[in-house]
Each structure stands twice: as structure tokens, then as C-alpha cells.
Design goal:
single chain, 270 residues, alpha/beta, six-stranded parallel β-sheet, 6 helices, 28% strand, globular, Alcohol dehydrogenase-like C-terminal domain-containing protein, GroES-like_sf, CAD-like, oxidoreductase, oxidoreductase activity, acting on the CH-OH group of donors, NAD or NADP as acceptor
Length: 270
């Protein structure tokens, strides 16, 4: 594969939020392969990274199981991998009481995956509107909770809490939610400092645990688990074109994505 080059379409974002198409040419180095992009999952970080292909080290790629359609696989390899790396790396066990705060793109997959692992999943959301869906996805309990407000008197503390929603979290309000020696896993982040009451967290032995980007082995095990447990994300598809990308990003900004967007190349629409 040495001395070969590939030319493919890329989509770039402007400061005004518009999308324009261009082409790029890239040489293939030792042990590199060109992966053509037929479908792409979408999240807020993707506005400057959408393209019709990519060059990767052959040691970093992996197959998608035949039993899993590509539209479902795309969000699993992004939001699903983010959740999976937490669920499988940090001593989260079946029957543990696991809270999921926020039921969006990350949160709905956190509910499905944790429930399939045998955890007791507790969903925390800012309104009643998503209760029935959360229960359908596998949640054992659903509580309306707003950051800064106390939980209900009968709330049973959590062993683990996955923060999958608004990045502006009042960490002091999380203290009554977490059991002693429990853990908080922030899956969304901000460049702004977060006010964390370290003394109160220390007294209860509560750990705030970050997570690494999912490895190839993580994603392969996730895809195999998704096939075994028949887990698929809830998606809205858009064409992988300028208009489709702009429409998908606007849907995401408006908070109307239910629950992950997938961009699909022409001829592969579902």
C-alpha cells in the first residue's frame, strides 16, 4: 500500500455555523488503510470532522458484526463506547444500583447497556416527559430531579452515578444521591471549572472517576454484547450532504434529537 494516495470529500464548519464541502488528498503510509465512510454517527463535536473517508493504521480498525446493521453500529461506536468504557472498567457489577442523570444520546444508551448487564438502573431527569421511555429502555426507577434540588425522601442512594446530561452540575446536590464509597462518572465535560465540595465527598468516600477513550478491544466487546443482548440505539437518519449535516446539527442544537443522529450516504437510506 506504500506510494498510494486517496482523494475524498470532507465537510468543514465555518464560525457562522455553515457547512461547506471540499476535497483532500492523503498518502497511505506503512500499514495504513483507507476506510470509506458510508454512515456516520453525529454528536456536538462532529461539526468539524465529517468526511467520506479516513486513513487509519490497520491495527486500529475492527469489523462490525454481520448481525448488527450499520445505522445502529454508528452511535454505538461513539456514545455507546463512551458509556461502555465506564460500565466495564470501574467495578460496576450486576445488581449494583446505577444512576443515569440525563436521558439523551448518552443517557438512553447508558440505561439500555446497564440494564442488560443486570444493574438496577435509576434514571434521573428534569421532567416527567421521558418516564415511559426510560422504563421501556430498562430503567427500574425514574425520578424527577433538578441539579441544586434535594431528592425525594424515599430515594435510595446509588452505588454509581453516570452524568450524561447538562454539564452544569451542582456537585453538592449529588451528595444525597450517592451511597458511601460510591462513584460519580462525568461523561459530559466543560472547559469551565466545576465547583466540587471536596471535603464532603472525602467524608463519604465518594470517588469522581474520569474515563479514557474506548479502545479497539472495548468497542469490539461492546458490539458483541449489543448483538447478544439485541441492544440498538434510537436514531434519526439524515443524508450525508451539506443540507443533511446542517439539518442534523440544527436538530441537535434545538434539543430535538431522539436520541442519536446518523448521517447516511446517498443510496444507503433506510
Amino acid at each position: 500500500m506504500n506510494n498510494m494516495s486517496v482523494t475524498y470529500k470532507i465537510f468543514r464548519g465555518t464560525p457562522e455555523g455553515r457547512i461547506f464541502a471540499a476535497e483532500t488528498t492523503q498518502a497511505l503510509g506503512h500499514n495504513q488503510v483507507f476506510i470509506e465512510t458510508l454512515l456516520s454517527g453525529l454528536c456536538g463535536t462532529d461539526q468539524h470532522h465529517l468526511r467520506h473517508g479516513a486513513v487509519w493504521d490497520a491495527n486500529c480498525v475492527y469489523p462490525i458484526p454481520d448481525e448488527l446493521d450499520s445505522v445502529s453500529a454508528a452511535p454505538l461506536m461513539c456514545a455507546g463506547a463512551t458509556v461502555w468504557s465506564v460500565l466495564t472498567r470501574f467495578r460496576i457489577c450486576p445488581k449494583d444500583r446505577v444512576g443515569v442523570m440525563g436521558k439523551g444520546g448518552l443517557g438512553h444508551l447508558a440505561i439500555k447497556l446497564a440494564a442488560a448487564m443486570g444493574c438496577e438502573v435509576v434514571t434521573l431527569s428534569g421532567s416527567e416527559s421521558k418516564r415511559q421511555e426510560a422504563i421501556k429502555f430498562g430503567a427500574s426507577e425514574y425520578h424527577v430531579f433538578s441539579s441544586g434540588s434535594p431528592p425525594s425522601k424515599d430515594f435510595k442512594p446509588l452505588k454509581h452515578l453516570l452524568l450524561c446530561g447538562n454539564v452544569d452540575v451542582d456537585y453538592s446536590s449529588l451528595l444525597p444521591l450517592i451511597d458511601s464509597c460510591g462513584s460519580v462518572h462525568p461523561l459530559t465535560a466543560t472547559f469551565e471549572p466545576s465547583g466540587i465540595p471536596t471535603l464532603q465527598f472525602a467524608f463519604k468516600g465518594i470517588r469522581i472517576q474520569g474515563s479514557h477513550v474506548a479502545s479497539r478491544d472495548d468497542i469490539r466487546s461492546l458490539l458483541e454484547f449489543a448483538v447478544q443482548k439485541k441492544i440498538v440505539p434510537n436514531v434519526i437518519t439524515f443524508p450525508l450532504t451539506i443540507d443533511g449535516i446542517e439539518g442534523a446539527m440544527q436538530t441537535l442544537r434545538d434539543g430535538n434529537m431522539r436520541y442519536r443522529g446518523v448521517l447516511v450516504r446517498k443510496g444507503l437510506e433506510v
